[in-house]
Amino acid sequence: MGSTPRSSRRRHWASLLGATALAVTAGGALACPAGAATDVSFPTHCVPPPIAGIPPIDGTTTARLAVNDTTPEVGDTVTVTYTVVSPAASNPTDLALPADIMTPTGKVTLGGAQTGSITLTGPKKNDPVPGKGVFPSFSMTGTFTVTSPGAITLSPGDYNIHTSYILELDTPCTVTNPPAPVSETVTAADNPPANTRAIQLGSASGSPGASVAVTGSGFTPGASVTLAGRSGSSQTADTATVTANGQGNISGSLVVSDLTTNGVVAYEGSAWSADLGAGPVAYVVIDDQPVPDGSQKVTTTVRAGTLSMSQAGDAVQLSGVEFGQGGASTGALQTVTVKDFRGGPAGWSLTGKVTDFSGSGAKIDAGKLSWTPACGTKAGSPSTCQAGSPGTVGASGATLASTPDGTATGGEFTANAQLSLDVPSFTPPGTYAGVLTLTLS
Fold this sequence. Notes:
There is one protein chain. The chain is an all-beta fold. It has three domains: 6-28 and 305-440, no CATH class; 39-182, Sandwich (Immunoglobulin-like); 198-273, Immunoglobulin-like (Sandwich), CATH 2.60.40. The chain has strands spanning 6-7, 12-16, 19-25, 39-46, 57-67, 77-86, 102-112, 116-121, 138-145, 150-165, 167-175, 184-188, 198-201, 205-206, 210-217, 224-231, 234-243, 250-256, 263-268, 277-282, 284-285, 307-311, 315-317, 327-332, 336-340, 348-354, 357-359, 362-364, 369-377, 386-387, 391-392, 398-403, 411-423, 426-427, 431-440. Strands 4, 5, 6, 7, 8, 9, 10, 11 and 12 form a nine-stranded antiparallel beta sheet that branches. Strands 2, 3, 23, 26, 30, 32 and 35 form a seven-stranded mixed beta sheet that branches. Strands 22, 24, 25, 29, 31 and 33 form a six-stranded antiparallel beta sheet that branches.
């Protein structure tokens, strides 16, 4: 089978003021992809090309399936790799077949929470096959979109071996007793619609007992919506109720008397929920009550700081891969420290995007870089850091870490990630570099 260029290199990251450069150098050990797959064997009926003049072959196929994500959400796209470890068919002729003339295609059967089939194709790539020799192992890839939550089983299905040498010939192989045994299972989580509820306040502060106007959108039409004051993670006694109109908009007012109130929320249901609520929006109660005779009012000021980040270094060297094999070139992103001393209700998001990797007159596409983020929160911080989802970084970017909006936010956090660049085989040897830019907002 003809092969698209894939190369092995080593990666190196350099980071400066939020920008990180990555390079890969040819040579070194080939990293194995993460995750394990189960080999299964099943009876197969293969039909050699008529020109071979031999009867069908009833044998056993050994295969394995692997996925790039075993815990997707509804709406995610899952990539499936179908590897035929031991085909049931063999070269039907006495003629030796040269390298790179086989093109496989196949099917994978879905079961459990989602049914259907996936069509997979493989590259035109193979080792030479002697006359009457057994076909070598080969792999095919395809994708499917998750449509239902729950456990989804994957079973290897029919496959076809097409050879392009002197003649164009096909050897189709079908599963004798479908479906074949399950080789992989993914557990899909439901993906509820995003919460688009939002509120605005008519003023950011007021005296005790003042009324603040509250407007909002994105609520369930006709729903009863509670307006409430918040003090840290607790609700105060200041509440009011409004009804969302037919477009999901709300308009009302809330009398705020509690001196500890530092935010206002609006929510559907009997209690505050981030899934059915909006806010908190910062609100300050100004204690302007007169000081009693013989008393002194003592005040102080807490000054708001800034949102900033720093990096432990500006370079990361990724592991090398072998020319002709390609594969995963891996390493670790330099640790990023985020300090949020702004105060108020806003969280933050740290995202990254990468350029193509250039070198040796060739390039590796930015979409070949993926990461597995991780983050930590310093004890005592009001916010909790959330790591981004594992997956492709690419030119469009992905989230490394974030904290949510809340009544009280801030703190110190560390974020890092395991990096993996999928280097195509037969990419020209050399050093390849790209720039990973991190943005904190």
